[in-house]
Structures are given as structure tokens and as C-alpha cells.
Protein 1
Amino acid sequence: MIRPDDLWEALDALALEQGLTPSGLARAAGLDPTTFNPSRRISPHGDMRWMALPTLLRALDVLKISPADFIRRLEGEGRGQGIGAARRIRGLPLSRLRGSGLFDSTGRPNGVLWEDVTLPCAVTGDAYVVRVDTDSMEPLLREGSSLVLMPDMPPRRSDRVLLWRSGMEPVLGILLDNPLEAGAQRKAGVPESRQVDPVGRTGGRALSSSRWAVQPFTASAAPLRGIPAYAAAEEDMHVSSPFVREDALVPVPEGKAGVWLHRVVMGTF
């Protein structure tokens, strides 16, 4: 028998395969960005909600999956063998994501320090999990949250990302324009069409420009744009906002070995 959580897990897996977060899928379907958030899947009585049929149909239309095919995948050959099948991937707590030897020369997880983590849905590629084991980023990220990152998925402006630098503290946050680099290019008279924009072409590989910076998910970074911190995590944030402090941004180093920028594609926020 199909259960509500089977449906949610299957939809999450399909969205992840296409590089969509729950909020990204909702936006693409023309729905409220919070429609598929984990917190909205639970009823006031603590039970998992059934998704409304019109909502499901709009999501499947975005994912290019027919309702009949979705049901067949859900049923599969029994729970655990269909689209919502669990998969074991590599993972580490955030506090242990600073040592050397964690990633290979292409930025993919490597070595014996990683733990096995079980996800309730299938993921593709060399995805890995980071468990937030600090309360320093609340309320944007709760302690105990788990994030799924995809090294091969190109990060884009306003994406949630992890900036990893060998021997340094990892930085979780929002990818933004580096105001210092952008200002320097404008002062130098570089046309906007010729300004360096490596994001979207390099995947998670080391970037060749410092045009980009990360706005950390720290308590001191919220609120942004005059909205509550919990809402800021779901909004597009740009350095043009007066609430984004330049001194709080972490520049993405220029094309250095051992520097990786990985996109967060799913998580329990």
C-alpha cells in the first residue's frame, strides 16, 4: 500500500535528479515556494499529509512525468525497490569537514574518513551528505539538519553552497556577487557582457575568478533584506541589498588547488 511519505520521497527523488530543491520545484510549478517544505508535510496531529492532487499534477508536469508513470514507479516491486528506494552515500558532520584528503583532484568525495549515510531517496552522481552539528547557523539551519551536495552540479547565483578550502573551516551559505570584484571591474571600464562569470560552466571545480563570494549562514548574517532569518533562506539574496554586509562575505579564492564550491540540492532545513 502506498503511504503519504512514499509519495513525498518519490517526488523529492525525481526533483533531485533534475537538480531541483523542494522550493525550486514549487516555484517552477507556479506554486508558493514553501509548498513542498518538510514542515508543511506534517498535519497538526503529527501525521504525514497527502499531497493535493492538483499540486501533484503541476509538479509532475514540471518533471515531465505522467501520472500513470509516477504511480507505476511508486508501486515498483514493493516499497524500497522503486523510485523512492534508499541509497547509502558518503557523509560527514560539518565539524569534521576540514581535514585534507576528503576530496580528490576533481572535487569528489574520496578517502576512508567518510561515513556511510542512508537517504530515503535515490540520488545520482557523486552526491554526499553534510550533517550540521552546530547551532551557530540557527535559525537559517537547525542543528541536526542534513544537506545533500552535488559536486558535479554547477552552482548558480543565489544557490545554497558549501565553500571548502583545504585546512580551513568550511563555509555554508548563499552564493553572491563579490562586491569588491564587481566594483573593480566596473571602475576598470569592463563591459558587463565581458565580466568574468565562471559559475554555470565549471561545475564544482575550482573557480578562476574571485567575482563570487559566499554569505555565510551564521546568526550574525540574519536578518537580510529586512525579512526574518527563516524566510531569508528561501529568498534570492543579492549584494545590492543594504542588509548584506560586505565584511561578512567570504570571497571564493581564485583558481587555487584544493578549493571547491559545491551546490546544496536538498536538505532538512
Protein 2
Amino acid sequence: MFSVRQRYLFIALLSVYSYVNILLTTGHSFLGINLPEPLFIVSVTVLVLLVWEANRLLQRNLGRIRVFLRSKIHPLIIHFVFSLFVVAIIASTISIILTSLYQLEKEAFWLALTLSLGFSFRINLFLHCINAIVFYMNKYKVVQIEAEQLKQQSIEARFDALRSQINPHFLFNSLNVLYSLVYRDPDTAARFIEQLSNVYRYLLNNQDQKLIPLREELEFINSYYYLLKMRFQENLNIAHEIPETKKDYYIAPATLQLLIENAIKHNVVSKKNPLDIKIYIENGKPDINKIVVENNLQPKPVQEVSSKLGLKNIKSRYTFLAGREAVEIITAPNFIVKVPLIKLSYENENG
């Protein structure tokens, strides 16, 4: 708030208000000193200006102050506390100048200092109250915008995940595999139908969920891999070794499926060049765990047209969920995507 373009207009208005307020309560006596009209107006205006500008400089350097203090205290509190010291110096300086100008006695100086501190602190408190209101209004607007963006991205991501499974190519390939199995191997065909239904059931049941236990996502991937394996045979290998202790963490639905789909879409999958996809846990800091999807790079000679919505949606969703840019992508020598696992309580699961 202190750095707004119209700040000098606000300073002038606050000075006029303060001048009128003092005039109606104590007449021309400012800080216990009867001042001439011009000096009275100048003194009030200068004091208000200095209090405002001091707070503006503090606000501009607030980041450095917080780093120096290594403090997690709310920035508004730090700003206010530091402003008290600065404003006290300003008020004391004004008192010294005025009492020296009029050569007043010691008792008059202490009265002027007391009144100057009271007036300056009142102006400072008023400005910080307005600043806090502006701060939280802006923060509320940002939260509203982010929530709206997440809602839109979530809809796009759910649609993208579902579409990637229902697209004609996938459905045609699945039905083609099923057709070849029905008469040749009825038992395998029945198993194929079961896994196909598991895939669609998972996608339909979880399309409204923001997070899902990793355990359920891996079960879904097992069914999804079964369908892919029947099509690609030994040309595709997907391996995952996830510790049981990590399976109770949470992940956005269809995250792993989108990453596997992305790998298959952009790489050659053949007997000569089998595609190997590994899913594993990367341990970082004590409270941070990431699930990693890694595949060998063997780009198709002619790449399919891609909007890259899958990776963009994953990055956007996890940036919102983690409060920071959380998805890491490495493009050489292998293609690697690292996605954070989220630890939630049972209550948060349904929140």
C-alpha cells in the first residue's frame, strides 16, 4: 500500500485530516507549542510525510530484513515493529527541532516529545491497519484466482486423462487384441476384459478426486500395464518397486498413467528397441518424497502432433497442491519426471 502511485495524494488528505482534527481539539497548539499557521501546517504535513515514506522504505526492504532475521514471523508484524522504532526517531527529531526553534524549557520538551510520539504512533497505527486490510484483500483475490485456475486445470486434466484412454486408437487397439483372444484363448480374453473394466472404473470413479492414495494408483497402473502388455508384448516393460510405507502417500489421479502414455506416445516401441519404463521412489529431504517415472529415450522418426497438455496439467496441479513448482523434468540421458508424494491425514483426504 505504501508504494501506490497516488501516495502523495493520500499523504495530503491525511495531513489535511490531521490538521483539521488538531485545530478543532487544541486550536493552533501543536505538540503543546502555539505555532504560526504556516509552520503549523508544514509541521503536520512533514510528520505525516516522513511516517509514510519511512514505512515505504521499510516495506521495500522487508524481504532483506526477514532474511537477515531468519524469522518466520508474519511480514506485517515485522514491518509494524520496525516502524515503531523508526517513527519514534522521527517524532523525537521533530520535537527537538521545534523546541530548539522556540528555545523552550526542558519540561516543554518532554511534553512536546510525548505529544509527538502519541500523534506519530496514532498515524502509524492507522496506516498499518489500512495496509493490513489491503494485504489480505490482495491475498484473498490471489487465492480466488488460483482456486479458479485449479478448478479449470482440474477439469482439463480429468478430461485429458479420460480422453487418452477413450481415444479411438486406444479403444480400437484394445478391442482388436480382445477379438484375437476370444476364440484363441477365452480365459485370457476374460482376464483382458476384467482389466479393461478396472481401468475405466478407476478413471470414472476418481475423476472428481483431487488426490488418491498411491496404493490405488499403482493397482490401476497394473491393470493398465496388462492391457498395454497384451498389445506390445516384450516390446514394452514397466517395472515399479514401491516400499509399502510409501503407498499410503497421495498422488493426483492418473498421474502415472499420463506419464506412461506420454512415454509410449513419443518413443519407438519395438522388438529391436523395447521401451523400458521404471517407477520408483526418490528420497529427498526427511519430509519430502518423490515418485519418479523414467524411460529410455528412443524418439519416433516422425513425432505425433502434441499439445503437451498432459505434462502441463501435471505441473500446474502439483504447483498448486505443493504451494511451489514441485514437478521436476530431466530430458537426458533418459527422460525422467519427478512428482512429489503428498502426505495427508484421513480428514484431509475428503477435504
Protein 3
Amino acid sequence: MIDKKVKIAIIGGGVAGATTALYLGKREVDVTLFEKEPSLVSGPPFCHLHAGGNLYREISDEQCLKLLKQSIDFLRFYPFVVDYRPTV
């Protein structure tokens, strides 16, 4: 039996593409990630991908809890991206 390693190409290095590449790479899949920008961190930081401080009072409790869960899940997968900054 020939043991062939799976090869996968992922187009787009956004959150979904990068997460998929990391996930598959941990499972020993040969992954190539294609991104048109010069860097994977060319876009806005994840901390800006939220409902916005001004909108929190306008979204439901259910939406707030969903946003919190998504943020926690993201940080569990990418713990090294946290930039600890004390808020004064």
C-alpha cells in the first residue's frame, strides 16, 4: 500500500483560511496558503472585529453572549495573538 500525504491549497489568508491551514497542518496535512496581500496581518486586528463599543447597548443579550463565545474560541485557538494592554 502506498502512503500518500494529502496536499491541500487554501486561497485566502483571512481568519478562516489561516485557521483552516493551522488546523490541517497540525494533522500533518501538506498545506499551502495563498494570500494576495504581502502579509497575513495586513488587515484590521481581531480586536477591531467586534460590535463596537457604541453598539453594545443596541444589540441583544443573546448577540453579546454569542460575540463573547466567539472571542473566547478565537483566543483559545490563537493564544499567541493577545496583546495585553492595561486599560486605565
Protein 4
Amino acid sequence: MYNVILVDDEPRSIDALEANIEWRKCGIRDVHKAMNMESAISIIKKHKIDILICDIEMPNGSGLHLLEWLREHKYEINCIFVTCHPEFDYMRKAIQLKCYDYILKPIDYSEFSVVLTKLVKKMEASSIEGVDTEAVNWGGLTDYQIREKENSFSEQDVERRVKKYIREHMMDSINIPDIAKELNFNPQYLMRAFKNKTGFSIGDYITKARMETARQILKDTKIPIKDVANMIGYADYAYFTRVFKKEYETSPSEYRNRQNKQDNGE
């Protein structure tokens, strides 16, 4: 079993990560927490820490600065970085410092558990073979491979931000130029990256998201169907009905009636 330290200047991020990972199943015994580089170093000096899980962008010493300090002082600690901003220069520096992996926020906790478990298994294998655990890293990647990883993270960021925009503007008239302008992306890149990640065009995803929202409202409330249509951005009730029927092979009123009968045990 290994010990980890979570380092992030946002307490909610640390608490969420601590709460959503089954640490012992991943091979972790103790979880320490710090909110800045100075506090992290103090804990590392006092406790046996095997894995650093750290945000990159922090005031008063970034995650890269912390890992650089650890390498300079010969601490054999593996590192997983988390960040909101995938950037080539960050990745290259992280690799130079023998970082194991680089995960984009918001964290997919299932994915994170897989990454952490793989790291622990590699550390266990290295320990058995007598290999320095510090060698468990990205070190062999070329600039091209780093760019490929950056592109993957960038597309993941596009997917996350576009979906968030759509959720927050469900009642509005949504179009790709407005999304691109708001998120500061080239429209062509935005469309390509989103489809690469989701398999849907942005337009198709907007429709699906709206229909799913409508379905939930129809199921869970008694709001008039015309108002439901307005709530998800459809001023034309007849058009909303056609789109809903195409998606679910039933009209909104038929869907609600069927749900009511099921709820009443009919």
C-alpha cells in the first residue's frame, strides 16, 4: 500500500477528489492534503509520500515548481497532474520532470481510478524488480506524441465547455458562431473537435440535449407542454412536437400520459 498527497488551492477540488475515489481499492493507504507548495513540502518532509496528485496552476508555487523541487531534492515520488488548461509547454515540462500522467479537469473519477491503479501496479512491479520507481513516467514520448495527447485533451475541453454552454443557454437561440465566440474557439475547429469526441455534430447534440430535458420535465412535472417547449428554446409548439416525436417515436402528450399511467400503476 502507498501514501498519496493531494495538492490544490481549491479546497472543494481536494474534498471532491478525496470523497470520490476508493483509495484502498486503488492500493492507497493514507491520503494527505495540502493547499499550496509550502504546506505540501512540509507534509512530504514529515511523512513517507509515494504519489503526488497536484493541480498545476496554484499561487505561490505551481505544481510544476513543486515537482521540480522534489526532483532537485531527490524525492522518489510519482506524480499525476490535474489541470483545467491543456498546454504543450506544461506537458513537455511535466515529462522532463518525470510526471506519470496529466488529467484534465473536471476529473472523471472512474478514469482517474484507472490511471491511479495502473500507476500503483507499475510501482509494485518496479519495486519487485528492484527498479527505481521514479522511472515510471512519460519520459519516452516525442514532441509529436505530446502534441497528440494535447490535442486529445483539447478536444475533451471543447466537449466539456460546449456541453456546459448548451445546458446554460437551453432557452436561448443557440448557434455555432455564438458558441465559438463565447468560448474563444475557431468555429471550424469547434465543430470538428466536438464531433471527434462525441460522434455528434453540435446541432444534433443540441437537439438531443433539448429533447432529453423536455422528456425529463414532462415526466417529472405537470408544466403545460407548450411551456415546456418554450423552456428548451422552441417557440413553435408544432415544430417541437415533430422533433420530439422523431426522437422518441411518440408525441409529448402521449409520452406524458404513458408516464402518468405507469406512475399510477395502470
